[in-house]
Design a protein that fits this description.
CATH topology of the largest domain in chain B: Peroxisomal Thiolase, Chain A, domain 1
Mean pLDDT of chain C: 95
Order of helices and strands of chain B: EHEHEHEHHHHHEEEHEHEHHHHEE
Strand content of chain B: 15-25%
Strand order of the largest sheet of chain C: 1-15-13-5-7-11-12-4-14
Structural class of chain C: alpha/beta
Number of strands of chain C: 15
Structural class of chain B: alpha/beta
Largest sheet of chain B: 9 strands, mixed
Radius of gyration of chain C: 19 Å
Number of strands of chain B: 11
Radius of gyration of chain B: 19 Å
Number of helices of chain C: 6
Oligomer: heterotrimer
Chains: A alpha/beta, B alpha/beta, C alpha/beta
CATH superfamily of the largest domain in chain B: Thiolase/Chalcone synthase
Low-confidence stretches of chain B: none
CATH architecture of chain C: 3-Layer(bba) Sandwich
Distance between the termini of chain B: 29 Å
CATH superfamily of chain C: Putative cyclase
Helix content of chain B: 25-40%
Number of domains of chain C: 1
Largest interface: A-B, 41 and 39 residues
């Protein structure tokens, strides 16, 4: 699994970041970019779109909110910053930018696909830059040429080394296959309690570039040992560790199970964060791009019948935010995947509404390619979150007895 | 538009430049103190007698203009703070002139100053404006170079102006700077030098860009009789215009706000562009000077290539322009860059421009332009001055 | 010489050797695997408090967490429902005199090597007695399988239908408890019972009969190959856990090194 490419005699990029400070209002765009939505500031009164985001509509002084917007635009002017003032961009110059006329009205400065020229039609996206703030990116309409500037902002696994922390997760095998197919330089898959049989071990071992490694995230020693071994080369970490033990507070082994789930979900994440986090954050300018926490949608919504499970996932989600802040110092993205119950045997009672490991793996890959921060997988998860946003108390009451 | 009052009885005097430095350990406050001392000496009036203070600076924080009164022992009854970059001088002048005319103040010291330390220019860019912070700086386009590259590209495509045409402005300003002791860039420049300079953000190349530096520019606004009582050489204010965000619906900046008010300017001045003995434009980039010639009525945009080719812009030429070398050759001392042309025009019209004096200079046009808040410069203004 | 002085002298001169029958408490040491709807025993976990660092500049120490039945451990009578009413049936009240006792070692290595699910029978025990004499009352009977030399997956030996490890059959353990009055039964595997003993009658007969009679279990022993068939003494003091059902412990064996201290086969 030797990777070629890095010349040890050359200077490594310094861990600089683009300027992350934005107005409070501009972080509405950050939320859209984090989820992969394209939404722009629009006047609630007259409907005019505005850019950059103002505190009142420049046409009628109406209130501004974000709305889904058409993605089309045309290039007015384009240039290449050969000597940008900002150290982050200077390090990566030349950098292509352009002034575009958006189909919805305003003009905007954008990160421009290097092949785009004045009068070209482009397609806009809101993406998170390495500082974790939203920026506009313009791709050539119908163009297929890859854009190194977009790669800089997203977490494409191509040529990167990935650790999947728990090979026993239903998404682990399809994810490992997908990462390998997407050109990952190496895929490490952690095997907890290596003394227990690993289902489909042969299929794992058949994946090109995959290596099974012992990793039990409930053990300080196990996590620290693996970090010493490969921590300095992991560029994408996907934490798939889970221990689904549904049951209400009154379940016979509720306390033991809750502790075990906390040990995996919360303390396990803490261990990973402490052992892998600093090295990954340090290498933010040297290839390390993303940390993915695969969590349950029940980290946000807490049915009584999933008391300990939901609590453990909620704790992991809370820790995720702390880890996100630490990784952000190195420009490393933390992507949270909130999944509906998977096809794990423990979720049998959810029936056909469950998410397959393959679908979950696909969503993770897509999120990496797009550089997302918030990914929701499965109709049930989308539905629950929509209901929560709309009427949280109703959800609370509905889930007193039901799972969804 | 209603008929505007003229500026009868109001004059400008005591042009002061505190010699520029590429970097300085001194803060803006120190440069303002030097400028005040320069004004007092030039006018022969104690600075305690200045009862108006108008300050332009980007780096005064945490001070305000009022804080400076205690700092320098002033007790003014008119105070103004105009951190408006390239248009600050004209805004400051217009307000001071009306204050003096109305008797709200007798002598207003108009000062622009900024310090310069390694890194301070970039730090200033990071937080230049809300829109810049949200929608410019994160694109690697912090600082004006990229924004002006995009404007220049569109403007040059629309007018047919080429870098070859613009070279004439840059080269003649470098020639003019030879007569300016404090100019930071005096190395002779040829058109070839200009055209082959390394690209910064095409079509902007190195010799299109100003050098950030520390410095101060200042002048006094007072009543004509007071100037005469002090035996001060002065110039009269014939006409002014000011406009901000002049064409908000233009997709890209192909014209500045001057176009909206240019007829008013020349009507108030009772003069035409051809009557001007010298012109001081805001030259953060040669292409923006070219835009000002068109917008202020010297030619149309389409005529610019011919116009630029037809004239000699040196102080000995037929259309002396940016006679001190402008910001392009003397340096851009932050907000003082906007005062530079006005102070130089006062010198020229009071016959104190030394080796670069334009013979028989009687009338001058000074134009200001500033605050690239997002995709365009928002502030525009111009004044016509007449020798006293 | 006093008996203790004699003992110390024997240890000092090497006529009595001390053998450690304990596995290292490793974080990846397998634990018993119950059906997942049951509560699971916790593995050994070590959390560093400080290591001469900012969290404790001059000292090194850890927090540990562990199930009562993890690693080399002792089962107290209260561990099984049959022993719930035994007096002094938990580790904190366990009689100290039971913590030092002789041991008989039944060598089952050949059979266990042939068959993971090998069961120790009464017949085999009687054959052993024929060689080594009657198993004394209040002594440990240790089933030697050399399982302690296995590691990881081979040690747990899990298949889709659960663990496959050797142990006594119901008849043998009942005979040991009732006919021989042993103090306890020890194994090198994760349980005193065989891996498939859940299907026996009664289920888990070693637990059933031993603890029902107030006797003990020792599990996850190692180094049994160093012990003579008879003549050794085990030191088995568990942690004094309030009402503990069992405890990890350090098991030491005192063994004589002179031939004359061992009974010759007849």
């Amino acid at each position: 699994m030797m990777r070629t490419g890095k010349n040890p005699l050359l200077r490594t990029h310094r861990p600089t970041l683009p300027h992350g400070r934005r107005s409070r209002a501009a972080h509405l765009l950050t939320a859209a970019a984090a989820e992969g939505r394209f939404a722009l500031p629009q006047c609630r009164r007259c409907g005019a779109f505005a850019w950059p985001i103002p505190e009142a509509c420049p046409h009628c002084l109406g209130a501004i909110a974000l709305s889904e917007a058409p993605r089309g635009a045309r290039v007015i002017a384009a240039t290449t910053a050969e000597v940008p003032a900002d150290p982050y961009f200077r390090e990566r110059a030349p950098w292509h930018v352009g002034l575009v006329q958006m189909d919805c009205g305003p003009q905007a400065l954008v990160h421009l696909h290097p092949g785009a020229e004045p009068r070209d039609a482009v397609r806009l996206s809101l993406v998170l830059d390495r500082a974790g703030a939203a920026v506009l990116h313009a791709a050539l309409q119908g163009g297929t040429m890859s854009d190194p500037q977009l790669r800089e902002m997203t977490a494409d696994p191509r040529d990167r080394r990935v650790l999947i922390t728990d090979a026993r997760h239903v998404a682990a095998l399809p994810l490992a296959c997908a990462l390998s197919a997407a050109g990952a330089a190496a895929v490490y898959a952690g095997v907890p309690e290596d003394w227990k049989p690993l289902p489909r071990r042969a299929e794992f071992e058949a994946i090109v570039g995959l290596k099974l490694v012992p990793l039990d995230i409930s053990s300080d020693r196990s996590v620290a040992d693996l970090a010493r071994d490969i921590g300095d080369r992991i560029e994408i970490l996907v934490n798939t560790a889970d221990l689904p033990r549904p049951g209400p507070l009154s379940a016979p082994a509720a306390a033991t199970d809750a502790r075990a789930m906390m040990e995996i979900m919360a303390m396990g994440l803490l261990r990973l964060a402490r052992s892998f986090g600093p090295a990954m954050a340090r290498r933010g300018a040297d290839g390390t791009v993303a940390w993915v926490n695969v969590l349950s949608v029940y980290s946000r919504i807490h049915p009584a019948a999933l008391a300990g499970y939901a609590a453990a996932h909620a704790a992991a989600l809370a820790l995720s935010h702390a880890l996100r802040a630490e990784l952000a110092q190195g420009g490393v993205r933390l992507m949270t995947v909130l999944a509906a119950p998977t096809e794990d045997e423990w979720f049998q009672s959810f029936g056909p509404i469950r998410v397959s490991g393959r679908a979950l793996a696909g969503a993770i890959l897509s999120g990496l390619h797009r550089g997302l921060e918030e990914v929701v997988v499965g109709d049930l998860a989308h539905d629950l979150l929509a209901r929560l946003a709309e009427n949280p108390k109703a959800v609370e009451r509905e889930l007193t007895r039901d799972l969804f | 538009m209603r008929r505007r009052r003229d500026y009868a009885g109001v004059v400008l005097a005591a042009p002061v430049t505190v010699p520029y430095r590429r970097f300085s350990t001194r803060p803006a406050q120190w440069w303002i103190g030097q400028a005040l001392a320069g004004l007092a000496e030039a006018a022969g009036i104690s600075h305690h007698a200045f009862d108006g203070l108008s300050v332009a600076s980007f780096s005064l924080a945490p001070d305000s203009a009022i804080g400076l009164t205690q700092h320098f022992g002033l007790s003014p009854r008119h105070v103004d703070f105009v951190p408006f970059g390239g248009v600050a001088a004209l805004v400051s002048l217009r307000r001071a002139a009306r204050a003096v005319q109305a008797g709200d103040a007798d002598i207003v010291a108009c000062i622009a100053a900024d310090g310069s330390a390694p890194g301070s220019f970039r730090q200033g860019l990071e937080s230049f404006s809300r829109f810049s912070e949200d929608a410019i700086y994160p694109y690697g386009a912090g600082g004006p170079n990229v924004s002006f590259a995009l404007i220049a590209q569109a403007f040059m495509a629309a007018t047919g102006v080429t870098r070859g045409h613009l070279a004439r402005l840059a080269v003649s300003q470098r020639a003019n700077a030879r007569g300016t002791p404090w100019a930071l860039m005096k190395k002779p420049m040829t058109e070839e030098d200009y055209l082959t300079a390394r690209p910064i953000a095409p079509p902007i190349h190195l010799l299109d860009c100003v050098m950030p530096c520390a410095g101060a520019e200042a002048f006094l606004v007072l009543r004509e009789e007071d100037a005469q009582a002090q035996s001060l050489a002065f110039v009269r204010l014939s006409a002014t215009i000011e406009r901000h965000n002049g064409f908000p619906t233009d997709p890209v900046m192909l014209r500045g706000g001057w176009q909206r008010d240019v007829a008013d300017l020349w009507a108030m001045a009772g003069a035409a562009p051809t009557d001007m003995d010298l012109v001081q434009t805001y030259d953060d980039y040669p292409v923006i000077s070219a835009m000002q010639f068109a917008d202020l009525g010297f030619c149309t945009g389409a005529e610019l290539p011919e116009f630029l080719a037809a004239h000699d812009f040196t102080y000995g030429g037929d259309l002396p322009h940016n006679t001190s070398g402008g910001q392009l050759s003397t340096g851009q001392a932050g907000c003082a860059g906007g005062h530079l042309g006005l102070v130089e025009a006062i010198r020229q019209l009071t016959g104190t421009a030394g080796p670069r004096q334009v013979p028989r200079a009687r009338r001058a046009l000074v134009s200001g332009f500033g605050m690239i808040n997002f995709d365009r410069g928002l502030g525009s203004g111009a004044v016509v001055l007449e020798a006293g | 010489m006093s008996p203790l002085a004699t003992l110390l002298s024997a240890i000092a001169t090497g006529t009595i050797r001390i053998v450690d029958l304990t596995h290292t408490l490793d974080e990846d040491f397998p634990t018993i695997v119950l059906p997942p709807e049951m509560a699971q025993s916790a593995p050994m976990r070590i959390e560093r408090l400080s290591h001469y660092d900012a969290a404790g500049p001059a000292w090194y120490w850890n927090n540990i967490s562990i199930g009562e039945h993890t690693g080399t451990h002792l089962d107290a009578p209260a561990h099984w429902f049959t022993g719930r009413d035994r007096p002094r049936g938990t580790v904190d009240t366990l009689p100290t005199e039971d913590m030092i006792a002789p041991a008989c070692v039944i060598d089952c290595t050949q059979a266990a090597a042939r068959e993971d699910d090998h069961l120790l029978t009464r017949t085999a025990l009687e054959a052993w007695e024929a060689h080594h004499g009657r198993i004394p009352e209040r002594s440990w009977v240790l089933m030697r399988t050399d399982w302690g030399r296995r590691r990881g997956a081979a040690f747990a030996n899990l298949r889709t239908d659960g663990a496959h490890t050797p142990g006594p059959n119901a008849d043998a353990i009942r005979w040991l408890v009732e006919a021989r009055g042993i103090l306890g039964f020890g194994t090198e595997t994760i349980g005193t019972d065989a891996g498939q003993a859940g299907h026996f009658d009664p289920p888990y007969p070693a637990h059933h009969y031993l603890h029902g009679a107030g006797r003990y279990g020792l599990q996850c022993l190692t180094n049994l190959h160093e012990l003579p068939p008879t003549g050794s003494v085990l030191l088995t003091a568990p942690l004094k856990i309030r009402a503990g059902s069992g405890s990890p412990l350090r098991v030491l064996a005192l063994i004589p090194t002179r031939d004359d201290s061992q009974r010759k086969p007849t």
